[in-house]
Amino acid sequence: MKYKKICLLCVFLFLPVVLWGCGSPEEKMEPEESVVTQEAPSAMETDSIQAESNIEEGNSEPIIAIQDFDTFAAQEGSEEINLVVWNESAGTQEILEPYNSGDEVYKMQGGDRFAVNTQCGSIFLRAIRIENNIVPDNWLAEDGTVIEKYVELPLGQVEAHDGIGGIRIIMLLRNKDNDEETHLAYLVSK
């Protein structure tokens, strides 16, 4: 009798599992092969796809964050004294190169702010001349030590002289170690 009860119990327990596990024949479907047809893209769609891929490729390059003016003007960690231009509205920050005859001249834009870092290593800024005007050396203490990290240049207020195609900026640099002096010349057009 015990054997019959165990058999009946097994049938009642496993019968629903077997029935629910198998499901009805209607639910069983063979996977159909799906054929996807695709039309050739039109010329406009091709241009759009190419533009999207160019944007995606452009996003793979690192984006350089614009530094605030004080940080960019100070050029901390730089190995050179630099003339820099910073423009928040245009989202630009650029280090200008000294002018050599035939070089392209930087064209000023509205909102440009120009600055020169005052020290890098043993080299420090000794004097600046914009056209014929010497910029007051308020970045230097009386003993010649540098007290400011940068000097902002008021180039927007300076008139360019005719015949030279821009505003001349001359910087005098001095090496603390050997008192050697160097001149850098820049040209910026309005």
Describe what this molecule looks like in 3D.
This protein is α+β, with helices and mostly antiparallel strands. 23% of the residues lie in helices and 27% in strands. The chain has three helices and ten strands, in the order αααββββββββββ. The strands form two sheets. Strands 3, 5, 6, 7, 9 and 10 form a six-stranded mixed sheet that branches. A four-stranded antiparallel sheet has the order 2-1-4-8. The longest helix has 21 residues. The protein is extended, with a radius of gyration of 37 Å. The N and C termini lie far apart (110 Å).
Quick structural gist:
With 190 residues, the protein is of the alpha+beta class. It has helices at residues 2-22, 43-59, 69-74; strands spanning 83-87, 92-96, 106-107, 113-117, 119-120, 123-130, 133-134, 150-153, 167-175, 181-189. Strands 3, 5, 6, 7, 9 and 10 form a six-stranded mixed sheet that branches.
Features:
single chain; 190 residues; alpha+beta; 4-stranded antiparallel β-sheet; 10 strands
The main sheet comes to:
6 strands, mixed
The total count of helices amounts to 3
Task: Give the radius of gyration.
Answer: 37 Å
- Find the count of extended strands (DSSP E, 2+ residues): 10
**SSE ordering:** HHHEEEEEEEEEE
Shape: extended
| % residues in beta strands | 25-35%
Query: Into which percent range does the helicity of residues fall?
Result: 10-25%
User: Could you name the ranges where pLDDT drops below 50 across 5 or more consecutive residues?
Assistant: 40-62
| Rounded mean pLDDT score | 76
Distance between the termini: 110 Å
Structural class: alpha+beta
